[in-house]
Structure formats: C-alpha cells, structure tokens
Amino acid sequence: MAQHSADHESHEEEHQPRLVNRFVLFTAVPSWLISLVVHLVFFMILLTIFMPPVEREKRVLTINDSADAEEIEELVMEEFEPIDEQTLEFDVPPEQPEDAVLSDEIVVSDFQEEMAATQMVELSDFADVTMPFSDIMSEVSGVDGNATAGRGQATRTQMLRENGGTGASEEAVVFGVKWIAEHQLPDGTWNFDHRRGAKKPGSKDFGTASNSPRAATAMALLPFLGSGITHKEGKYKKQVEAGLGSLIKLMEVRGDTGSFREGEGNMYSHGLATIALCEAYAMTQDKNLLGPSQYAINYIQAVQDPVGGGWRYQPRQPGDTSVVGWQVMGLKSGHMGYLSVNKNTIAGAIKFLDSMQTQNGAAYGYADPGNKPSMNAVGLLCRMYTGWKKENPALQQGVANLAKAGPSLGNRSDMYYNYYATQVMRQYGGAEWDGWNTKMRDFLVKNQVPQDQAEAGSWHFDGPHTERGGRLYNTSLSVLTLEVYYRHLPIYKANASEEDFPL
Q1: What is the pTM of this model?
Q2: 3-class secondary structure for 63-128?
Q3: Contacting residues for 197 by C-beta, under 8 A, at least 6 apart
Q4: Helix axis angle, 430-447 to 167-182, nearest 10°
Q5: How far apart are CA 282 and CA 260, in angstroms?
Q6: Alpha-carbon distance 439 to 87, whole Å?
Q7: Which end of the chain has fewer CB within 10 Å, C or N?
Q8: Residue 393 contacts by C-beta under 8 Å, 6 or more apart in sequence?
C-alpha cells in the first residue's frame, strides 16, 4: 500500500512538469490566435451541418406527370368516324376542342434552364454552309411561320390538296396514329415489342429491340406531331404529353448536354428523340421543352467525330451516313425552333458527306464512298438541308436516279429508304415528285391493315430493320411518309422569304 502511494506520488511529480510546460506554452500563445482557431472550428462545424450535398455530375431529368400511369391506362379513346372521300374530299378529321392540359404543368427539375436559353446565345450566320433559311422562315400560299407551320388543321388540308395527298391518304394517317396511340404503355413510353401495349397489345410482327424505350417512344411521337397533335391540342394530347414526359425522364444530363443514347439504339435513339423534342418545342414554344431540346442539340455537337465530322454508335466515333442522317435531321428540327446550332457542326457534317459521295455527290455509301439506294436518299436530303440549291447538277442527277428506281414496294418494302427518298422527291417537286407520289401514296393506302382485322390501322413489311423494329417501326415510317405533304414547308419555292433568319 505504501509502495503504491509512493509510486503514485512519483507519477504525479513526473506528470506535473509536463502539465506546467503545456500551460506555459498555452499562455504564451496570443489570445487573437486562440480566438481565430476557435472561430474556424465553429465555422467548419456549421458547414457540415448546413451545406447541401454536392450534386453528382450525372443527372437524370424528371418532370411532374399531369397524366399519371393510371389515367393513361384507363384512358378511353374515341373511335374515328370513317372519312367519306367523296363528301369530305380533302377534309381532315376535326380535332377535339379541349383546353390545353400542359401549359404550366411540365416542370423540369434538376435542370438549369437559363443555361439553355437561346436569347442569351448569339446566333451566327452559316453563310454558304448552313441549312436553307427558306425552310425556316417562309411564306407559302399565305402560310407563314417556321417549317412546322403546315401542320395546322386548315393549312394541312390546303397543303394536302396542293401537294398530292388525298382523302384516302389522310384517312390512313388517322388510323395509323390511332393504332400507335392504342399501344402506348402505362408509363407513357412505347416499345418495339408492341405486345406490351396498353389497350390493344398485338400478338404478331413485334420487334425484338425491346430495350430501346427512347427510340421507340420517339418514333411513336413523331407521327402525332407530324399531323399537328401536340401536348397542348389535338385528340391525343394526353398521350403526347405522357410520351414527352417519359422521354424527358430518360434523358441523362452531364454539364449542358443531355443524352438519349441507349444500348440497343445508340446514337439512332438520340437522333430520333432530339427530333421529337425539338419538333414539339418548335410547334408550341413551350418553355418547359426549351432546356431539354437545347441540351439534346448540345449532345449531338459534343459527340461529333472531330476528324471526319460524322456520327456513329459511340461518341466521336468515325461516322456512317445512316446515323449522320438522323443527327442532321435532329439539328434541323432544333433549327426550326430557333435553338442554338453551331456552324462548325454543320461544316463537319458537310465534310463527312463529301467523304461518302460518289458520282460527284449524286450517290453515297454507308461508311465508305459508294452507291447504296437508302444512303443515296439520306445523303441527298442532308445536302438539301445543308445548302445545296435545286439547280445543283449532283442533286438533279441524284433525284433522277431515285425517280428511275422508284419507291420500294411489295412485301419486302424498305420503309427506311421510302421515308427518306419521299422527302427528297417532295422537296424537289415537279414531274419527278408527281410520278413518285402516286406510286408511294397508293401503295401505302392499299397495304394498311383494314379496320375489320386485328392490328387495324398498322403496317408491316419484311424489309430491312423490320425484325428489330417490328410493326411500330413500319407504322411510324408509313404514317410519316403519308404526312410528307404538310409536315415540313418546302425548301425550294418561287416565293421564298428574301430575308434569311440569322442562325
């Protein structure tokens, strides 16, 4: 016990000098330094409590759905009354006089809209390497506005009559859009495997690309938009609203770009989704679509091959003409809505087209110079939208080649080729268009599934890409082909606007 006490006293004697030394050191420190240290520690504690968590670089856009899954699933679609061509001639079915449902209801969260505001971006003039502005700001037979101005109901009837459409062709559009509407999924998307449809799931000719919701939803939306139906007006505005909302949810945002790339669709999916968003924005000027549309355009520009100027499956990969076509059409759709498109992006696309052409630009290959019919159509349409004049000898020769070959008809019809080639011929006009249109229009009208059969209103051919895209792919392209009369105002016309819109 005594020993323990002695040890304890000895320990205290050893410890006391250290305490004294520390105290002396502490008292030697200036009071202002001690105060600074205390305040810094207190400030750091406050930061850990109140500072919001750091945002991850990769974000997913979300919106508030005004048409939720149950509403879409239970939505009862009114049946169309058959059109009597003799009594109505070119009249289109009347749209429902309903109030807009989305004017202030799409709310894009996690998205800095001001970063994409076009009024804050100085638009540059492309000069000779830009898309023709007669397509962007024009006046044709009293129709003025951007290139989607022909989709209004009264204008659509007029342009249908003037450009070679018929009551039967417009009736085919009506029933085709109806079939697409009936196969929307409860979450607002579409699937190339249309057996999963909401109201009338099909049982045959379905596509195998079942993991491409972005591409399928975009392809489904385009025919609605092409016939003037938006999320603000039209018989299927609720379906369009849900489709646009689901598409925006699927966009992945990094910085000021938004991607729709997906495993099965790659850049095809992104191009299609960009077209759908930008067309919806151009038609409605809905500010809630401005940010997503501009971000989609920004992504196209960011992933362009910096060497060859094209696009393919992966970012900055050397391009192919097929993927390039969808990206150029996406840029064009953004251009229609007066979004910001970089002139260097268009210059790069032109450089790529130059590298794929043969016959001095009348023909095009896929990933190398060549003469492939479907690529010829894609290449020529891109040339039209990137500045070639109607008098260009290569364009004239290319159109003559398409006219000689004619549309792809029969059970193995290639609707990809027909879709692009029909746009080329429609924009070029003249006798070449008249001959092409009669064959293409009547073939599609005749081969649409009649109303007394399963899959009524749809199309299916055993041509290229059909196995993956199925009936939805064929129906979408068929409807878009029959909407060619009014979907875009013509590029080449005698009374085009003299003043170009300065992009």
Answers
A1: 0.74
A2: ECCCCCHHHHHHCCCCCCCCCCHHHHCCCCCCCCCCCCCCCCCCCEECCCHHHHCHHHCCCCCCHH
A3: 182, 183, 184, 185, 191
A4: 50
A5: 19
A6: 24
A7: N
A8: 360
